[in-house]
Design brief:
The structure holds four protein chains of four kinds. By secondary structure, chain A is mostly helical. Chain A has helices at 19-37, 92-98, 103-106, 121-128, 136-147, 167-176, 186-194, 211-220, 227-230, and one strand at residues 153-154. Residues 1-15 and 37-65 of chain A have low confidence and may be disordered. By secondary structure, chain B is mainly α. Classes of the chains: A mainly alpha, B mainly alpha, C alpha/beta, D alpha+beta.
């Protein structure tokens, strides 16, 4: 650059100096510094979608309101799960809604174990070696059964491996220890975290199932807050 | 020539320098970089690349290749982190503290010291981050709202570090920037092209009218007052990383002042190094004069003595205390496998500074360069000697172990120097590394002093001289 | 029966991926974590039993086959995978406890180096083959058409018992052969022989818990001797209470038991018997104990071993000898044991005899040494092995007396000392079939290799050689379905071999499981069903749940037939001034566990060394050789040289160098291969006159420093506590004074 | 005013609860007693821990670098500082001294306050929890542990520690830790958790002896006793009191100084929940 000796006192130029302008620069710098420090996504909050507060009823038909039943504050948050390609497109609506089969009839492990579990294939065949045997899906199921193996179902509601969630305890609190609830209405309890499966064919993830989702519900229903209770 | 040396021997700065000359000199230092400059840039970029490569490797493989092991969970990363944090204190000392004390000899040299502060902080900030086992989660240390609704542990000194360092970094950047505004205006007026745009933006319309100067002074003073406690607190908190632990050799009450003094010490040593280099490469003999170097050395010497004293206090308190493991660690420092480093540190840190007691050396840049570098080597060793021996010789004998850093660790430490050097090199070519307007103030004051007492002598002469004739006073006719 | 079969087998299937998900690392970089829909599969059972709940572990009883002690185990099974082994509380032998080898049974089962397909030797090299080919070849060589008969055929196994041994004997008989070599490096044969000769029972019950003092001549009953876990429980009772017992261990190099002794005496190898006689001498002549129980011959032998002579031969100070004798007298009942280091010499039998004599003198018989009788069903009883069979086998093979040999559960080529020259003799055998889980040294030399199911995939019954208290049959049942479909059950193979020899036998049994059910059902008074024809399912299931079947104990008293022969102590050869001791350890045992990563990384109890071999020497020796810990020395015997890094400690006799056995495999999977050295290889010839057991402890060695620093990987970097109160010690007086009630 | 009241309440609560390790609201307080006289140093506990807790086998090179993972380690010392070393001058006449060392689950733990992200914290069960997925790997806790009982994943051990099918053995109740995570003995928290779960399902309290840690269950001499210190009927509580070992002190004051109970480095005021009973030797 070209240098010619001058001192700043001999200068003349546009009078534009304002403190606001100066501070603006400073604030900008500060913001940049702050942003540069708070990093990007991470294991802890990877599945955290923007937290949405939806009052029950404001969502689409798939999770249409199941009125908050007494003794429980429903957890907040919704999630738009993708459709999972299952070996057999199992119609939940047909079983649970039309035929009013209780969730616990098939997912029987839910009240005895940490995992709800997929029903053993023998359970399906229990009915379906007589009922609707002519339908293509049942035919497919029968094939599996005759090959002597179970359909390789895809896991829809999955939690990270460092999380321990027990179905039995939640059922105990929300259903069996809840005087205002009866086993007939178990679907409402399930719907708290699984959405209204009754309205779906293949189950779709309807709730975020993030740590925030869990903690908010634990807060509302005074569940335990000891990290180690849920993290293994 | 003899005149020159005479001047330099007595005066901080020559009052005869024309302000235009100051501008031209400083601005010249910012233009047409020579071959050497580019060479330096390339070298520091290569060093930086070594560091980056090591870090990438470590990110993918884990902390294992750094040879960290069960007793030695921390090593070079933390000690180098403390080292860089220490470096950063000198700038604040010169620009803020001495500013309050109106020690105006600081004026030609505080700018690059301030820059050094900022850059060494930026270097230091890297280390606590990369020493994390899971770097990708580093932001969990900062309190921010998240879906999980959990917060960092505010009892942990590491969290305090995060706050302290970021605050201090922001503060010193602002201070550096504000201090530069008038000079940036000068650059603006003499620049063309992208520089013009840059300086125009950064000098926020400074035109040096009275009101601006008044507000400017206020802000600058304010920032200085704000920065001093910050500087002290930062290194006290870094000291807390160790003092809050119960490990023998760390659990020492006198650590905060000890760390602060060590920080100022290494900072001053670094200033001397850069002083000599800039003076030589940018031909700043007129501004970075030997008397100023002399004063800086005196300051360094004083701080070195304080540091050595605190060292002795620590030894004594351990020695006369009842903490047997701590005593074992102390003895091991003197006799154990780390003793060469420890004794080296004592030599560089407490013996070498006595050379600064001699004026001949204080005014000999070529001699001061190696000395100041060795002072800093000593200070780096000090930090290493705080971390390693304690970990290798803690309470439980079963896990006693001596460990030497792995190549990844060395690589990253090496790279950090490249990072610092690169930043500094860019700075000296983009921003004035000597504060022009303050040098002008300095010169202005000198002139006033000189002319005033000249007039005074003339006046007395007229009073006392009745008829008697002698040699005309120097001022006559001027 | 078939019903149980079906359900069990289905239950044992590995379920889906749901459980295995644990193998995905829990908390790595975000990208790794799979939690979005459809990423994982979950495959339900076809039709599980009612008690099978995913996510809930079920415990199944079985038997541990990691060493011949046959402790009872219980496996935690979840989603069809066995996750953890615990001791079986129902077992009288180990009462719910387990040693590290037992814990590591999992890694024998899940070992990545297991054989999965049959191998047949084609033009010199082992090549994969189908089961049909392999069995056809076996039929051709050993079937009825082969004309093979009589002593030309032999089995070589490890300790074997239960119905496998029944079927094996049947197979031998079908060939008209009687040569069944049973090989165990770590054995108690000499002790059994002495007990048999002097007391008329080979395995009397040893009541360590009742004893007030135990004097053990190198019997490592906490580590490797007989039934360590059973003795550990006894030891705990022995140590507690106001009459806390005192343990004195005399041995050349410190064993785990020695490490827990109140008084550990470094003994010159081979002089155990001398020390025993010396003690007897002191007891009779100084302590005036009644010696009427002893025969005259023994008495005058004892009188030859006065204190001075004993001191000279054993190197133990006289006053110490006298103090031990006094303790023995005061603390009655006491118990004197003699283990491997006493028995493993040319005069080993006499040493053990002397120890037993001491017991008789102290009146311990029927006090702490109880009659245990023989097992009610002798055909099931344990055929416990020894090293004498190894030399006998070597001779037979060398003399070309063998045409076909079947191997199972033993690795003779690894264990055989060089002087036996077994490898060549072995290769000279025309037809060798190995029933093996792993490609070990022996298997590598076999002509046909049949991959066996692991202990956790197989059926079986086992009878411990040493029965703790009540006698029981230990049941082994599969804890999960075979990992590799290519492997087969040893029992099934025995059945197949038998029906190969004489077709038609064992018809109507679909497999070994069926055979077991019927065989056990035929045991009188076991499966009390409504009608004894059909199997009583509930009774059968109860047995499987307990994993144990109580058998009546015959309370036959001892028949004392006392005799005493003179000691046979060999003097040192000046060229080889040191004694070489191949120490057995409860980690790699005799080398069969060298392929288990857990045990390779589990620090040795004494030296804390991992993943390697080492030589223990005394600081004085180290000073003589001018070596530091970790420096490599050469251990030279007339039969070979070893190069090992040294570990220096004071728990060893000055003239002894101890190298642990177990390492030095040439071929035993990725974890064992080319690691450390095998001291058994360089042992000198020589065997006990009476029993023919190899003198494992009788070798002499010369040491020399190589000047190289070796690789000695140890846990921990200190040998001392540096004045801190880490392990505090108090005297037994104080303990007795304060803990009388417990 | 309320501030003063709170202060007084807290203080009195602290005084009252000092026996339970200071100001905590515990459901349980899991503690241990290890009888060093019964411990034979056989290493079974260590291997059981490997099996139960998915501990990685690191191999000889990493073990040599001190990067091994053994939550339960048996230390072996040759000297006997407190009864003089004349018995070990030329031979080890008293044998060796074995020390089973696992996380001491301190009640005023040094590891907890220094963790920047509260991955190490104190649970209502009186355990030092380590939340693996929260850990950022600053390793400050391990530096500050006087017992050196925290182990860091310096590598992604899981990649080569369990070549298939060894990985089928991994315990699904515990995360498999990956690189950059600190880990340590948890008193087999997964067993505690499942037992408590079972008890809750049956609306009852956990009874003594219902929870067994892996090391305790396998210990051949039953040298390890584990239980709830708050349950005054539990064996572990009885043993603590029999040997007059108290929480909430840095120096045990005993009417009978010969009683064997002591806690390791309790002068550091870490409040370990593990009491060791001194080793006994007949001299």
């Amino acid at each position: 650059m070209k240098v010619e000796a001058k001192t700043c006192h001999e200068q003349t130029h546009r009078p534009l100096f304002t403190w606001t302008r100066m501070w603006a620069v400073l604030v900008l710098a500060g913001l940049l510094g702050g942003l540069s420090l708070s990093g990007s996504s991470s294991a802890g909050e990877l599945m955290a979608p923007p937290r949405v507060h939806t009052p029950p009823g404001a969502a689409d038909s798939a999770d249409e309101p199941l009125g908050p039943f007494p003794g429980v504050v429903a957890p907040e948050g919704t999630y738009e799960g993708k459709n999972v390609e299952q070996p057999i497109e199992f119609p939940h609506d047909l079983h649970a809604d039309t035929n009013k089969i209780n969730c616990l009839y098939c997912h029987t492990y839910a009240r005895r174990s940490a995992v709800a579990g997929i029903p053993p294939t023998s359970k399906c065949m229990g009915c379906h070696n007589v009922i609707a045997t002519d339908r293509p899906r049942i035919k497919k199921l029968t094939e599996y059964w005759e090959k002597g193996e179970s359909p390789p179902w895809k896991k829809v509601h999955d939690l990270p491996d460092y999380v321990r969630f027990t179905h039995e305890r939640h059922l105990k609190k929300f259903l069996f220890d809840n005087p205002d609830m009866s086993v007939e209405r178990v679907d409402e309890v399930c719907a708290l975290c699984h959405g209204n499966v009754k309205k779906m064919t293949v189950a779709r993830k309807q709730k975020p199932l993030t740590m925030g989702f869990c903690t908010r519900c634990h807060e509302a229903n005074d569940g335990p807050f000891d990290c180690q209770k849920c993290h293994k | 020539m003899a005149e020159e040396t005479h001047l330099s021997a007595t005066k901080d700065i020559d009052e005869k320098i024309a302000w235009a000359e100051i501008n031209s000199d400083v601005l010249r230092s910012m233009e047409n970089p020579r071959m050497g400059y580019w060479l330096a840039v390339v070298v520091s970029i290569c060093m930086l690349m070594v560091g980056v490569a090591s870090e990438v490797y470590q990110y993918n493989v884990g902390m294992g290749p750094a040879q960290l092991n069960n007793p030695h969970m921390w090593d070079l990363y933390i000690s180098t982190f403390v080292f860089w944090i220490g470096m950063s204190h000198s700038g604040t000392l010169l620009s803020a503290i001495l500013h309050l004390f109106h020690a105006d000899w600081r004026k030609p040299i505080y700018r690059f010291a301030e820059a050094m502060t900022t850059f060494s902080l930026m270097t230091a900030l890297v280390f606590p981050i990369i020493h994390l086992g899971r770097v990708w989660n580093m932001h969990w240390v900062i309190p921010y709202y998240s879906d999980r609704g959990i917060w960092p542990n505010f009892r942990s000194p590491l969290v305090w570090d995060a706050f302290a360092i970021t605050t201090y970094l922001t503060g010193s950047v602002l201070f550096l920037y504000i201090g530069m505004i008038p000079d940036l205006a000068i650059c603006r007026d003499n620049a063309i092209g992208w520089r013009k745009r840059l300086y125009t933006f950064m000098s926020v319309g400074w035109r040096g009218d009275d009101r601006q100067w008044r507000n400017f002074r206020k802000t600058y003073l304010l920032m200085a007052c704000f920065l001093i406690p910050l500087a002290v607190s930062v290194h006290s908190i870094v000291a807390a990383d160790f003092a809050m632990a119960i490990m023998p050799g760390w659990h020492v009450t006198s650590f905060p002042p000890y760390f602060v003094s060590g920080a100022l010490y290494s900072g001053c040593a670094a200033i001397i190094t850069l002083f000599v280099l800039l003076r030589y490469f940018f031909k700043f003999e007129q501004y970075m004069t030997l008397p100023i170097l002399d004063k800086t050395c005196k300051l360094t010497f004083a701080i070195a003595m304080v540091w050595s004293y605190l060292n002795l206090i620590e030894f004594a308190s351990v020695w006369y205390g009842h903490d047997i493991p701590a005593k074992e660690v102390l003895i091991a420092k003197f006799t154990g496998p780390y003793s060469p480093f420890f004794l080296g540190m004592l030599f560089c840190g407490s013996v070498l500074p006595f050379t600064l007691a001699f004026e001949k050396i204080r005014r000999n840049p070529m001699l001061l360069l190696p000395i100041s570098i060795f002072l800093n080597v000593g200070m780096w060793l000090e930090r290493y000697m705080i971390v390693a021996p304690t970990l290798s010789l803690a309470y439980h004998p079963w896990s006693w172990d001596v460990m030497w850093p792995g190549w990844v660790e060395w690589g990253i430490v090496f790279g950090s120097f490249g990072w610092f050097g690169l930043l500094f090199l860019i700075f000296v070519k983009v921003f004035p590394s000597v504060s022009m307007y303050e040098v002008k103030e300095m010169v202005y004051h000198r002139r006033r002093v000189v002319y005033e007492d000249a007039e005074l002598r003339a006046h007395e002469y007229k009073k006392g001289a009745s008829g008697a004739s002698s040699a005309a006073p120097a001022t006559e006719g001027s | 029966m078939s019903k149980i079969e079906f359900d069990r087998r289905d239950f044992l299937k590995v379920m889906g991926v749901s459980g295995v998900a644990a193998t995905v690392a829990g908390c790595d970089m975000p990208s790794y974590i799979t939690s979005e829909e459809g990423a994982e599969e979950v495959i339900p059972y076809l039709s599980p039993e009612e008690f099978v709940i995913p996510g809930v572990g079920v415990h199944y009883a079985s038997t541990c086959l990691q060493c011949p002690a046959t402790c009872g185990i219980r496996g935690r099974v979840r989603e069809g995978r066995v996750l953890k082994l615990e001791g079986n509380p129902k077992s009288a032998l180990n009462t719910g406890k387990l040693c590290q080898m037992g814990q590591a049974g999992l890694q024998t089962h899940y070992n990545p180096d297991r054989l999965t397909k049959p191998l047949v030797r084609k033009d010199g090299a082992l090549a994969e083959a189908t089961w049909e080919d392999a069995l056809a070849l076996i039929e051709e060589k050993t079937g009825p058409s082969s004309g093979l008969s009589g002593g030309r055929f032999a089995w070589l196994t490890g300790t074997i018992s239960g119905h496998q041994s029944v079927l094996l004997k049947a197979h031998l008989e079908s060939l008209g052969s009687s040569s069944h070599f049973v090989h165990e490096v770590i054995n108690t044969r000499v002790w059994q022989a002495v007990c048999q000769d002097m007391l008329g029972q080979s395995m009397p019950r040893l009541r360590i818990d009742k004893a007030k003092m135990v004097l053990s001549f190198g019997a490592d009953f906490l580590g490797t001797w007989m039934s360590p876990i059973h003795f550990s429980a006894d030891y705990a009772r022995f140590r507690s209470g106001e009459d806390r017992g005192m343990l004195v261990q005399a041995e050349p190099s410190m064993s785990l038991t020695g490490a827990n002794a109140d008084l550990w005496v470094a003994l010159r190898p081979g002089t155990e018997g001398v020390m025993a006689l010396g003690l007897a001498n002191v007891l009779i002549n100084k302590e005036r104990m009644d010696a009427s129980a002893l025969p005259a011959a023994a008495l005058e032998l004892i009188n030859q071993y006065g204190v001075s002579r004993t001191t000279k031969m054993t190197g133990i100070a006289g006053d110490r000898l006298i103090r031990i004798a006094r303790h023995l007298k005061e603390r009655s009942p006491s118990l004197v044991l003699a283990g491997a280091s006493a028995a493993g010499h040319v005069g080993g039998y006499q040493s053990v005899q002397a120890a037993m004599l001491l017991n008789i003198l102290l009146g311990n018989i029927d006090q702490t040494i109880e009659a245990s009788g023989d097992f009610a069903l002798p055909q099931l009883a344990s055929v416990s092995g020894g090293t004498s069979d190894l030399s006998r086998f070597a001779d037979a093979a060398g003399a070309g007396k063998l045409d076909a040999v079947f191997f199972d559960g033993s690795n003779p080529l690894f264990a055989a000392p060089n002087h036996l020259g077994l490898t060549e003799k072995f290769d000279s055998i025309p037809f060798k079939v190995a029933f093996s889980q792993f490609m070990d040294e022996t298997t590598a030399h076999a002509d046909v290799v049949l991959p066996m199911a692991s202990a956790l995939e197989d059926w079986g019954t086992h009878v411990a050689a040493y029965q703790g208290g009540d006698h029981e049959i230990a049941f082994q049942q599969p804890l999960m379905e075979p990992i590799y479909p290519g492997t087969r059950s040893f029992g099934d193979m025995l059945l197949a071999l038998n029906s190969m020899r004489n077709p038609g036998s064992y018809d109507g049994l679909e497999d070994y499981y069926g055979y077991l059910q019927s065989a056990v059902g035929s045991i009188p008074g076991v499966l009390k069903g409504e009608d004894d024809e059909a199997i009583n399912v509930s009774a059968w299931n109860r047995i499987l749940q307990d994993g144990r079947l109580q058998m009546p104990v015959d309370t036959r008293a001892f028949t004392s037939n006392l005799s005493m022969d003179d000691m046979d102590v060999r003097d040192a050869d000046p060229a080889f001034p040191y004694y070489l001791v191949p120490t057995p350890r409860g980690t790699l045992y005799d080398g069969r566990h060298a392929n288990i990563p857990w045990l390779q990384e589990s620090p040795d109890q004494i030296s804390k060394v991992v993943w390697n071999s080492w030589a223990e020497i005394h600081p004085v020796t180290a000073a003589k050789l001018a070596v530091e810990e970790g420096d490599v020395i050469t251990v030279t015997t007339p039969d070979g040289v070893l190069e090992v890094p040294v570990y220096i400690h004071k728990g060893i006799h000055v003239d002894v160098v101890a190298v642990p056995m177990g390492q030095g495999h040439e071929d035993y999977g990725r974890y064992a291969r080319g690691r450390g050295v095998n001291p058994l290889k360089i042992l000198q010839p020589g065997s006990d006159a009476k029993t023919g057991e190899l003198a494992l402890y009788g070798s002499r060695a010369a040491l020399a420093a190589t000047g190289r620093a070796g690789r000695l990987i140890k846990m921990g970097n200190t040998e001392t506590q540096h004045g801190r109160k880490i392990v505090a010690t108090i005297t037994a007086e104080q303990q007795r004074r304060n803990e009388g009630d417990s | 005013m309320s501030l003063v009241r709170n202060f007084i309440e807290d203080w009195s609560r602290y005084r009252r609860s000092i026996d339970e390790g200071g100001f905590h609201e515990y459901e349980h307080m899991w503690g241990m007693v290890i009888d060093l006289d019964k411990c034979t140093g056989c290493n079974a506990c260590s291997v059981a821990c490997y099996a139960e807790n998915n501990l990685a086998v690191v191999g000889e090179d990493k073990f040599e670098n001190g990067q091994g993972m053994h939550w339960m380690r048996i230390e072996r010392y040759w000297d006997e500082p407190n009864i003089g070393n004349e018995r070990v001058r030329d031979t080890q006449e008293h044998g060796a001294s074995f020390m089973p060392m696992m996380c001491q689950q301190c009640n005023s733990a040094t590891c907890e306050p220094v963790c920047p992200v509260s991955a190490a914290y104190h649970t209502p069960d009186g355990l030092n929890a380590q939340i693996y997925n929260r850990c950022v790997g600053s390793r400050y806790c391990a530096n500050n542990c006087p017992y050196r009982l925290r182990y860091f994943n310096f590598f992604s051990y899981y990649e080569d520690s369990w070549p298939s099918p060894l990985d089928m053995q991994l315990n699904p109740d515990i995360t498999v830790r990956d690189k950059g995570v600190m880990e340590k003995c948890t008193f087999c928290v997964q067993r505690i958790r499942s037992t408590k779960n079972a008890a809750k399902m049956e609306d009852r309290q956990v009874v003594d002896g219902e929870v067994q840690t892996a090391c305790q269950q396998t210990c051949p001499t039953s040298a390890i006793v584990f239980g709830d210190l708050l349950d005054h009927e539990s064996d572990v509580h009885k043993l603590w009191h029999k040997h007059q070992t108290r929480l909430g002190t840095t120096k045990q004051k005993k009417d009978n100084p010969e009683l064997r109970g002591y806690r390791l480095y309790e002068q550091l005021n870490t409040e370990p929940s593990v009491t060791y009973l001194e080793r006994v030797r007949d001299v």
